What does this fold into?
Amino acid sequence: MCVWCERYSQGHERWYLNPANYARRLYKVRKEEVESAGAEANPQAAGGMATVGRDYIEAMQANDHETVERLRTAAEQRSWAVHFGQVVTIEEIHQILEIIYPISLITCACRRSMRGLPDEENFTCVGMGPGMYKWERWPETYRGGVHFLTPDEGKEVIDVLNRRGLVHCMYTFGTPYLGGICNCDYPDCAGIRTAQDLGVKTLWKGHYVADVDSDRCNGCALCARRCQFDALSFSPSTQMAYIDPLKCFGCGLCRNVCKPNAIAMVERASLPAVAEVW
Amino acid sequence: MALPTILVDDEKCHDPLSCRKCLLVCPTRVLGLGTSVGPEKFKQIDPAFFVVRGVRFQFCTGCDKCVEVCPTHAIQISFDGGKVA
It folds into this structure.
């Protein structure tokens, strides 16, 4: 079972469908934690989002498993207490947009950091909840400004970003306070990059796993360019999509472009081998 | 596999957020932007405080495209333990 649901769902189907996790009281917890963790600007962190530094990469390259393990554990504990994400499907985002208020479209700090993307091309991030009322106080965090949206406008924006091929992730700001819907891709997004390149779980897999119905797959391969997690490949021998359930993050991006509906999102919990693979 | 030393002279690199030539030219997206100061209330960070640093060191091939594209020659890459030619 998902540890975050276990701790924070309070009877709701998922922890991110529990309205209490969007409450301001929790938002205040974050400030103290972040300040006490000394999370001030670090140029090496490139935008302040890198959870591990060069020493981690060096230890990885040197096969120094002990150091890697120690740094990984420390980074994950920090991230899970303050700022981490979990992948969700577009249906779940639509549900979430009915719960949260206010909803705002802001610029993406990751893509500013990795691409230097100008603000006007960079509105791919959704900030939400009471934290957004403070936006004018923090012009750097909200560089480029803020567009407040109705729930329907929010859904339209999410649908466009999904068509573009971006993965929706719920992010905490002082766990379990949920303050952002990140719309991510590899390698610009720090969450996906850190999980994929470094094995540091700052981004958790979602509650679903994509499954291909070989009777329905017509071999069009439209899905093949949608996967950001290296989980989906196109098999030349079967002329069909092949999905590795151990690598699948359950975002549903491949399913969303499948014309013959050959890809289904099945509950992670229903597959014993991946039920605890997060 | 060797990791590069990536040295950026912040004095020579003005306003990388607007320039960003090195970020865009890198075939493996090794470089990233950070800031040398933290966010402050009611203040946007001046572009002068943005800095370029290596992020994904393990993907650097040493192609030197960033070195060549930099209009102010601010970037140096070395694969022999920090000594830059």
